[in-house]
Amino acid sequence: MKFTKYLGLRLLTWALTIWIGVTFIFFIPRLFPSDPVETMIGQIQSRSGQMDPLEMEMLRRSLRVQFGLDGSLWEQYLSFLWKGLLRFEFGPSLMSFPTPVGEIIRTYLPYTLVLTLTSTLLAWIIGNFIGLQAGFRKHKRSSKIMEGIAICIYPIPYFIVALVLQIVFAFILGWFPLQATIFTFGGTAAFIRSLIRASLLPAISLLLVGTGWWIISMKSLSSTVAEEDFVLFARYRGIPEGKIGRSYVMRNSIITQVTALAMSLGGAFNGSIMTEIIFGYPGVGSLIQKAVLQSDYNMILGCITISIVAIATATLIVDLIYPLIDPRIRYN
Amino acid sequence: MKRFWKNANFRLKAGIIMTAFFLFLGFVVYYFPHVDPFTYNTYRGKLPPSLEHPLGTTSMGQDVFWLLMEAIHNSLLIGLIVATIGTVVGVFVGLVAGFSGGVLDRVLMVVTDTFVVVPSLPILVLMTSLMKGSTTIIVMALVLGVFAWAWPSRQIRSLALSLKERDFIHTAWFSGEGTMQVVVTEILPYALTWSLSNFMNATLAAIASESSLAVLGLSPANLISLGNMIQWARERNAIFTRQWFWIGPPIVATVLLFIGLFLLITGYNDYLSMKRGR
Questions:
Q1: Domain holding B255: CATH number?
Q2: Interval B2-61: pLDDT, tens
Q3: Which of A29, A277, A312 sits opposite B216 (nearest CB)?
Q4: Which of B117, B116, B94 is CA-nearest to residue B104?
Q5: ipTM
């Protein structure tokens, strides 16, 4: 099979993933008995007392349009796919009316992407490096200690790691601010300084959990590869240990880890959301939290759609790198 | 049993002990008669640990120890229900996909992969925010189950694909057993040993998701779970007032429970591969 065919198939899966995911989130709110428009009207009524029935009917109709709930189910679905998926238009945000949801997400998304992608990549590199050392020299004491630490950190949910780091480093020691603040004014230098200060603790907590997993999985992979015959043969040929580690063991186990990286991105994104919420880091996670508190369904749907597209695309990119690393692959 | 314990590796032993300890707290100690820990002002608020209140009381005058027991019970219960749903559906979908092949297999796999790749938390947020606090433990478990089946079904499918070519399956086939018969009597026993580690994994993931949703205020408001307990303490400023005996226990319990379950999973997997003779 040619590379173009592999690429075509992979692009098709990418499109299907996004389509299934988005279709799923389109139908969820419509399957639940609660109606966001009626909830909203209830809220407005409780705030402003009784309303004129005619006025209320008008309000109801205009809210239906704002929520994309007018017309038949089929029409709603098509317009959701067309507007939401192809043009990233999700209607106005209801918590900061009338700014469009897409515009707000565009200002928050880069923060999340930078935080998630850098910490995921760093965790992957550091974890695989340590895991390789630990697996290649698995009888050393330091290998066992590293693995022990990894096993004790990896299974802990992201938000607990974040919470503990916040209590220890921000509250008790006071080295970091309790809540992240990023200055968008006062020049580039101030912006960058505040950005680093705000994202350091969130990034460290994401790194800790992520690195743990890569150490554990790389260790078990590389210790299996290290026992293969070709490694033994290389030793007999007198090839230096360092070169065996790099060109024989790493080369063979890193391939599996690239696929694993692609599969893990969704989980890493979940982790970012929780970490952002704990630290008040201004990303999509905090945005989702705000939207939930204020029942801004357009915003929630927008955030989910964009995160599905972002994660599916990132997975696609990792998958396309895969054949570059594995020369044996024949695209089938 | 004795032989199993002798053959078990260190991780498996540690995992079994830690998990058993939490099962004991959640399903035995929990049933000791005690005052409903949810009611406010049962005791004086902010009491330090004492014989009567081993972990002190909260600002609202609740006993932290019994709150914790109830939280462990409910979190484990959610985890077990979700894992059961996920395993049953996952094994079924995986077996169907692996054995049918063709178009059905492709369709099922694209759907499964979507559920593996797509970030689950935002979608869970959407579902629970539509129900906002008015859910029961069962509904919560059903919602979490939506994402629990995808990973097991992938694993089981690849297991089914490799089993399909084994001799004993062919033998069963040629001796005239129907597909259903083969799947139930020959494949399922295999799949179940595999599913056990998936089951524990799903338990862990479900407890983590529930507590994440709790931090967002989206877990049922009257459900005492580990996540909700942490969130309540956070909301009432337990950190700022340094009430470590209030916010500490649920955090420590969650951490230990997760490490225990994870040791159990990896230990069990190592044990299986050792038994297969590696």
A1: 1.10.3720.10
A2: 777 877 788 899 999 999 999 999 999 989 888 888 888 778 777 788 877 888 888 787
A3: A277
A4: B94
A5: 0.84
